[in-house]
From TrEMBL:
SMART domains: NDK. It holds the Pfam family NDK. This is Nucleoside diphosphate kinase-like domain-containing protein. PROSITE patterns: NDPK_LIKE (PS51374). Belongs to the NDK family. It comes from Cuculus canorus. Residues 103-243 form the Nucleoside diphosphate kinase-like domain.
Amino acid sequence: MSNPVLVCALRRINAFKVLADELKRLAQCNEKLGKSGSLLQTVMSLTPEVMFRQAILFFTETDFVTEYASRLLKPICFSCLGTEGWSCCAESLLTYLQTGAQILCTVLLIKPGAWSRSLARILQKLDLEQFHVVGMKHVNLEPDIALGLLSSEANQDPAVLEAHCTYLTSGAVLVLCLQRPNAVKKLIDLLGPEDPKLAQACDPFLWRAQYGTSTVQNGFYGSKSYQIAVRDTKLFFPEGLCCAECQALEEEEV
């Protein structure tokens, strides 16, 4: 009781198992280092129910629920304050914690040249990674749409900006809307760095390492966040998706 403690509320896919494994590894490292009083002492919640009861002791609902999670929890009365407020929201929040990973959608754009040479292999890779294709379009990008897909770094250099825009509008692209748990991060992890040489150095099996030739002709564009994925889905698939059972996108009225 004499020393302060650090309390963290963490969120990720398969959080309880991953954190338990990491704390076990940390404990093993501590044993090797010796029994020093300065070693980190940790304790974690073992179930969603216990986590919920412990979290409300330290956090307000505004602290505890992220912007993304709040969308998944609708309808919830976020205006409620104090114990009464937590009580009215408890059932929905606990249901969210117990549900686990939500099915999300993300957008993969296969750039000119890459899809025409390697579409069958790319679709096979998507299937192996348990992505479901719920939207597909073969389109020619307008310059303003191409510019909207570029990163802030590319927008800072007019020459780089022009090179990207020229390439993206040089031929047809294939746009896929993909669905699976944790879809946005999973796709970004598979694509790797935007520079194919850097991707090759990190892991030769990254998709940009295999299909890219330069930072401009790097094979793919993928939505970089949940918010961007929603934007991209609305942009390329305004008519809706094929058999999409995606709660988050339904909340965004896609």
